[in-house]
Amino acid sequence: xxxxxxxxxxxxxxxxxxxxxxxxxxxxxxxxxxxxxxxxxxxxxxxxxxxxxxxxxxxxxxxxxxxxxxxxxxxxxxxxxxxxxxxxxxxxxxxxxxxxxxxxxxxxxxxxxxxxxxxxxxxxxxxxxxxxxxxxxxxxxxxxxxxxxxxxxxxxxxxxxxxxxxxxxxxxxx
Length: 174
Prior knowledge:
Blueprint: H1 2-39, E1 46-53, H2 56-63, H3 65-82, E2 88-90, E3 95-101, H4 113-130, E4 135-141, H5 150-170
Antiparallel strand pairs: 1-3, 1-4, 2-3
Helix pairs in contact: 2-3
C-alpha cells in the first residue's frame, strides 16, 4: 500500500509540473506576441492594470502557506472573472497584470475599462472591511506619441497601484 501511495504522489507531482510548465510557456508566448503587436503599433489603444495582493505575508505567517496559496488563487479568480476579455499574467508571487486593448467586438474590457475597474474596486473595498481578499490595483492608458515603451505605461499603473494600496491599508478597520 505505501508504494502505491508514493507512486500516485510522484505521478501527480510530475503531471502537475508538466501541465504548469506548458501553461507558463503558453502565457509567456501570448505576452510576447501582444507586446510585439504593441511595439509594431498594431495596437493603438491599450492600458495596463497592475494588481498586488494586500496582507499576503500576514496570511502566510498566521495561517500557513497553503492558506496564502488559496488567497492568491481566489484573488486570481476575481481578477480573471472581472477582466474576462483580457489576458491576465502573473508577474511575481502576488503580482498580476492585465493588458486591455481596443477591440472590434462588443463588451471588450478596454472599452469598459474604467467601469470595470471601479466595480472591481468596490468589491475590494467591501472585502477590505470584511477580511476578504484585498487586491490593490492601478490603471494607466497608453499615450500615443508620449509613451515610447510599454514599460512607461506599466510604471504609471504600478505607481497608481501603490497609491491604492496605501489607501486600502488606511481604510482597514478590522
